[in-house]
Specification:
The complex is a heterodimer. Chain A is an all-alpha fold. In chain A, helix 3 packs across helix 4, helix 7 packs across helix 8 and helix 8 packs across helix 9. Chain A has two domains: 94 residues, Rna Polymerase Sigma Factor, Chain: A (Orthogonal Bundle); 68 residues, Winged helix-like DNA-binding domain superfamily/Winged helix DNA-binding domain (Arc Repressor Mutant, subunit A). Chain B folds into three domains: 50 residues, no CATH class; 55 residues; 40 residues. The radius of gyration of chain B is 54 Å and the shape is rod-shaped. Classes of the chains: A mainly alpha, B mainly alpha. Chains A and B meet through helix 2, helix 3, helix 6 and helix 9 of A and helix 1, helix 3 and helix 4 of B.
Chain lengths: 191, 158
């Protein structure tokens, strides 16, 4: 099926067309989400939200851009929204911890800390370090650098996804790289 | 090119985005400066490692997605039932109860109009009933009257 056939199929409620679209683009969507979330389970979860959104809002897709551009756009927005809500949840959970204080079961804390330690060991420290820096970037810079670095997209493709000019995309990526570079050097020197 | 300038160009150097001259200048500096060479190696590893964490194709992805969509649709229906249908039923039942209560209340204390209606209908009904059910013990029954008439009309043999 061509892109046009896929879209018109989904608009008509053809389940096979939707299945084909999901199978074709699931890797792309999952990995875009993962490039923002850096967590496999979260990425799979949010990517499903992307396809649900696609299914419900397929009528709004006019076909001016490629399906992949549209999917990238939804995936970026969903991932950023997820990060925002996660940040909010983290604030509340840390407040809860503060309020609960000593009520926590010490055995649970030991188990948690062991799990965290194992997790930390298993994860690549280098990747963690760069990701931490990228996560601190402003939203636009983070989107541009993620799509460029993790997805290997060209400036033109990124500009289409973000609805900005190619020059602006270049500026965003250069600024992001400059900040990442500065932070990385700072952290490496500290070690 | 000094260390500070190299530090500012190091990621672009790793990504191969520098112009020919700049690229050559950084290369020359890295060959001569041990600290910058070490820094470059660490940054190159960290930066290039980022591209390794790709999630492969998930074979049961669509099945799970479909299941989730069905669950969400079901949850929406349940939410509709809980938020709209259930309160609506409660309101209707409550309203009906109040209406019945009002009816019972007005039944015990009838208005003037209903009293007048009730009087006329009650009287008419009683009259009709009395007329249909009235039995005069002294009055002859129809069959008795006929019998007597027959007796009077028969010729007397004696």
């Amino acid at each position: 099926m061509t892109e046009q056939q896929l879209i018109s199929g989904i608009k008509e409620g053809d389940e096979q067309a939707f299945k084909e679209l999901v199978d074709k683009y699931q890797e792309l969507v999952v990995n875009v989400c993962n490039s923002f979330l850096h967590d496999r389970d979260d990425a799979l979860d949010v990517s499903q939200e992307v396809f649900i959104k696609v299914f419900h809002s397929v009528d709004t897709f006019k076909g001016d851009s490629k399906i992949s551009t549209w999917l990238y756009r939804i995936a970026v927005n969903k991932s950023l929204n997820f990060l925002r809500s996660k940040k909010r949840k983290n604030i509340f959970s840390s407040l809860d911890l503060l309020l609960e204080g000593e009520q926590n079961n010490p055995a649970d804390s030991v188990a948690d800390s062991e799990e965290n330690a194992e997790e930390q060991i298993s994860r690549n420290e280098d990747i963690e370090r760069v990701i931490a820096v990228i996560d601190q970037l402003p939203k636009k810079q983070k989107t541009a650098i993620n799509l460029n670095k993790f997805e290997g997209l060209s400036y033109k493709e990124i500009s289409e996804i973000m609805n900005i000019s190619v020059t602006e995309t270049g500026v965003l990526i250069n600024r992001a790289k400059s900040k990442i570079q500065k932070q990385m050097i700072h952290k490496i020197k500290k070690i | 090119m000094n260390c500070s300038k190299v530090h500012k160009k190091i990621l672009q150097y790793i990504d191969g985005e520098l112009t020919g001259d700049e690229n050559q200048a950084v290369e020359q500096h890295l060959e001569s400066c041990n600290d910058c060479q070490k820094l470059y190696q660490k940054m190159r590893v960290s930066w290039n490692n980022l591209q390794e964490e790709k999630i492969p194709y998930q074979p049961f992805y669509y099945t799970r997605l479909k299941q989730r969509m069905e669950n969400e649709a079901e949850r929406k229906t349940n939410r509709f039932k809980k938020l709209v249908l259930q309160p609506a039923i409660y309101v209707i039942v409550l309203g009906f109860g109040i209406y019945i209560g009002i009816l019972l209340g007005t039944g015990l204390q009838p208005t003037n109009a209903t009293v007048a209606d009730a009087d006329t209908t009650e009287t008419e009904y009683i009259r009709d009933y009395a007329e249909s059910q009235y039995w005069n013990g002294m009055e002859l029954e129809k069959i008795e009257k006929e019998f007597l008439t027959e007796q009077q009309n028969e010729p007397q043999d004696e």
